[in-house]
Design brief:
This protein is α/β, with parallel strands linked by helices. It contains 14 helices and twelve strands. The chain binds nicotinamide-adenine-dinucleotide and thymidine-5'-diphosphate. The site of thymidine-5'-diphosphate (TYD) has 12 residues, from helix 8 and strand 8.
Length: about 350
């Protein structure tokens, strides 16, 4: 068995990844450690708990709690680590950056320190089998103009507290590889979308609001560009990196599906109109509102993914239109999942983030 410690496995990408790896690899056992913050949800993995009871183990815990991490390493002989746990939403990092520093920087540091103490770093044969896969983002590279792509050699220029905290953790991970030969690999992925994404992020927020007939808040001029990657394609890329990636290397993971935010929101509205019919005779596009821009809003992200395409043979499989349709279908078919999340705490956040912007238009 390959014992795989997944951190943040109850979040959006983590839960998709846990399901994917357990289905795809019978010789993998997953230990999922997750603090269950507002973004962590046990409901994301109810099927996994049932279907893979013998190969899945959940621990509620904080990656910034080093004693707990040491206990986990004592109890299980960990081969691979896939480190997703993080505070992940840019807007929340602007409202309150401290949690980002704590989890993304200190949490990663404690995980690295535990590996340094518990893994036999001077035993080359043993360490060749280990992996510390650190899940990072394209946002650490900063913002692009109309043209150009980030490669794995692009300099770091993070601009939000979120991306700065991720950049900081990347530097620590790389330093542990360089200094202690910790078997680390870093991946930089573009924006993910798909089932189980928390409805504070652009795509599920728009689907949820459009369904309810609530305004669709588009920041600034709506021309910011993101490269949208279907979450399952990301999970397949991560498995390829775990199995074929090289220690100390970085891999960009993107879909080459750049879209302006307005284009994306309009596409969601059109598909929902087509699927559900017009709302009171009107297109959901009429719900779109331009609201005050996000401070320091990065204009465009785009990745050069030649390295992972050529060296690991990975390519995205899901086309943008197909992925968006599948995602809308999933949210419409799982109203209970969204409703259980859109509770008091979420509404408090929503009011803080959007209240004045929408009311002050
Ligand atoms: P998410 O916010 O949906 O999930 C984060 C998970 O981490 C939650 O389950 C949460 O409970 C858990 N967590 C938070 N703090 C913790 C702590 N201190 N200890 C243990 N668990 C903790 O995030 P996501 O969108 O699934 O992103 C996962 C990773 O991928 C993050 O590292 C993020 O930076 C990175 N990433 C995300 C995207 C994207 O588009 N979502 C793109 C590129 C990279
Ligand atoms: P988001 O999903 O927060 O991802 P990120 O900021 O990490 O790329 O936002 C994606 C894009 O959508 C980004 O340009 C900000 C924009 N956006 C809106 O226009 N309105 C919204 O309500 C949200 C949440 C995001």
């Amino acid at each position: 068995m390959i014992v795989t410690l997944v951190t943040g496995g109850c979040g959006f990408i983590g839960s998709n990844f846990v399901r994917h790896i357990l289905k795809a690899r019978k010789r993998v056992k997953v230990i999922n450690i997750d603090l269950l913050t507002y973004a962590g949800n046990l409901a994301n993995l109810v099927d996994v708990e049932k279907d893979f009871a013998d190969r899945y183990h959940f621990i509620r815990g904080d990656i910034a709690d080093k004693r707990l991490l040491e206990e986990v390493f004592e109890q299980f002989n960990i081969d691979w680590i896939v480190h997703f746990a993080a505070e992940s939403h840019v807007d929340r990092s602007i409202l309150g950056p401290e949690a980002f520093v704590r989890t993304n920087i200190y949490g990663t540091f404690h995980l690295l320190e535990t590996c340094r103490e518990c893994w036999p770093l001077d035993d080359e044969e043993e360490i060749a089998k280990k992996r510390f896969l650190h899940i990072s983002t394209d946002e650490v590279y900063g913002s692009l103009g109309r043209s150009g792509y980030f490669t794995e050699r692009s300099p770091y220029a993070p601009s939000s507290p979120y991306s700065a905290s991720k950049a900081s953790s990347d530097h620590l991970v790389h330093a542990y590889f360089h200094t202690y030969r910790l078997p680390a690999i870093i991946t930089h992925s573009s924006n993910n979308y798909g089932p189980y994404q928390f409805p504070e992020k652009l795509i599920p927020l728009m689907i949820n609001n459009a369904k309810k007939g609530i305004e669709l808040p588009v920041y600034g001029d709506g021309k910011n560009v993101r490269d949208w990657l279907y979450v399952e394609d990301h999970c397949k890329a991560l498995l390829a990196v775990l199995e074929k990636g090289v220690h100390g290397e970085k891999y960009n993971i993107g879909a080459n599906r750049e879209k302006q935010n307005m284009e994306l929101v309009e596409f969601i509205c059109e598909y929902m109109d087509e699927k559900l019919g017009l709302r009171h005779g009107r297109s959901r596009r009429e719900l779109i509102r331009f609201v005050a821009d996000r401070p320091g809003h990065d204009r465009r992200y785009a990745l050069d993914t030649t390295k992972i395409n050529r060296s690991l043979g990975w390519k995205p499989e899901v086309l943008f239109e197909q992925g968006i349709r599948q995602t809308v279908d999933w949210y419409l078919e799982n109203p209970g999942w969204v409703e259980n999340i859109v509770n008091g705490t979420y509404m408090e956040y929503y009011q803080k983030q959007y209240g004045a912007r929408l009311n002050g238009r």
